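Aim 2, interim progress: modelling of the flavin-adenine dinucleotide-bound target.
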Amino acid sequence: MKPAPFKYTSPSTITAALDLLAENAYDAKLLAGGQSLIPAMNFRLTQPAMLIDLNRLDKLDYVRVANNNTVQIGAMTRQRTLERNQLIRDMLPLMSETLPFIAHSQIRNRGTIGGSLAHADPAAELPAILVALQGRLRLRNRMRERWVPAEAFFKGIFTTDLAPDEIIVEVEFPSISKGDGWSFLEFSRRKGDYALMGVAALLTVDSQGVCRSARLVYLNSGEVPTVASLATGLLEGEKPSGILFEAVARVAASDVIAPTANIHASVPYLRHLAYSLTKRALEVAHSRALASVET
Ligand SMILES: Cc1cc2nc3c(=O)[nH]c(=O)nc-3n(C[C@H](O)[C@H](O)[C@H](O)COP(=O)(O)OP(=O)(O)OC[C@H]3O[C@@H](n4cnc5c(N)ncnc54)[C@H](O)[C@@H]3O)c2cc1C
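Predicted structure of the complex, ligand included:
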């Protein structure tokens, strides 16, 4: 299929893009990497009257450090750029570990962080990572800008807090600290497919090896990334162990996530995947956390 006819615009400044969006908010779509939007247009699932191509906005393509412990990423930064970035490896290793799971390298060469977050696919990795790391997004329209925390941004399947006249310009993440351990694991039927189930685990231990905080966030487990606080509460203030990880995984998989059956997997199977992935992710995150306090 080919897309329905549309007007193509290619502004060279953020101000010009915001003006175009303000004037055509309900008819226009922003074009970033095009890896989700163009297939949807080809299938005529969406038929915008205008495309506002953001690809000339070089100013939205950057990775930088602010206040020593915060990483800021421009919305038009490609997923592949992030995957290869040393700063991301050092300061956001959870994101670094996750990026290769997104589709194939050809798609990551074009796909952007802003596009993936705005698209808000419940099976996508970057929304889960944004929520796991408790990042926030800087949104702008013609008149003002505002910051939205990750958990308030995702509202439902393919639905976010973005107003029709707003653009994501930046995403900000707190850096990893001493005592933090991390892990991302997912299962898909073939390499590059969207995951059937995936989990991001973060664990912080003190010098005595006691868990000070833990976070589990699941993709494809509901309409938005699911935070399993009920399960991770079992870990806080305790010395982690295999038995505790099993208990946490059981609670998260059976009482917290709400996956839906699809042609590839039943709900019990998806819960089983979540249980197994969680146990392994916690073990890996824990050993990294211990190694980090020892150095
Ligand atoms: C075969 C295939 C497999 C894939 N597998 C995976 C996978 O396993 N995991 C995964 O996470 N993704 C996967 N993707 C999607 C891919 O990661 C996309 O890159 C991503 O979903 C969208 O990013 P994009 O930059 O291409 O955005 P686009 O497709 O250009 O835009 C997507 C949406 O976001 C809006 N948008 C874009 N940028 C902004 C902005 N700055 N502010 C506000 N709105 C904006 C657009 O208007 C549009 O509605 C796959 C894609 C394909 C084609």
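The two ends are 56 Å apart (CA to CA). The first strand starts at residue 7 and ends at 9.
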